[in-house]
What does this fold into?
Amino acid sequence: MSRTNYLRIIFPFGPSVLFPCVKGPDRFMPAIRRFRDVEIRRAARQDLAMLEEIERSSFQKERFPRSLLSTITSSEGFLTFVAEEEGGIVGYSSAYLEGRGRARLISIAVLPRERGKGTAKLLLTRLEGGCAHKGVAVVGLEVAVSNVVALRLYFSQGYAIKGMIRDYYGKGKDAFYMVKRLR
Ligand SMILES: CC(C)(COP(=O)(O)OP(=O)(O)OC[C@H]1O[C@@H](n2cnc3c(N)ncnc32)[C@H](O)[C@@H]1OP(=O)(O)O)[C@@H](O)C(=O)NCCC(=O)NCCS
It folds into this structure.
């Protein structure tokens, strides 16, 4: 379902004009994104309730339980970041540090009402930076072959398909295995 957003153009001497934009104004205007006040920071235990909310609104069967969310926000073996705006946390990304220079992106999600504003790109970039800092050279991930939005996100960030895993998300629900070399 698409909702109509409006881009307000303000002229110095005269009335402002509203232009309808189906996907949201800042999907088309990277310059506007810079003015969004989003902070990407490491996740903490007090973020658990919001992470659960993001999981509930973003995934179905493959949703992470609270116990796993608790682990990824507290264990040294994971890197987890949240995107925080004035109103609270709007998205998160997490990677498992597998060792030997490899990490696995295990989750990335943004609240439905906040999508299309560049938040996932910020979260992924920050996560990759954190992984590189920990000595990671290659990040891998699985994504449903039907998840076109996520696939586009990963392609745009330099990930390449390395293979397909049959029935990864259940019978008939295949996944692509994708990787990105960080250095
Ligand atoms: C996938 C997801 C995290 C993207 O979050 P987002 O904040 O909306 O993404 P961004 O705004 O940063 O967009 C990043 C890229 O994703 C793609 N994208 C985002 N929204 C899209 C849409 N509605 N249609 C097509 N591509 C889209 C584009 O390639 C976009 O880059 P561009 O703006 O330069 O074209 C979000 O849709 C989500 O939470 N989905 C549910 C959970 C999920 O499927 N996670 C992935 C599991 S593998």
Observations:
- The pocket of coenzyme A is lined by residues 27, 58, 108-110, 115-121, 143, 147, 149-150, 152-153, 156 (CB under 6 Å).
- The chain has two domains: 1-35, 38-181.
- The chain has a mean pLDDT of 87.
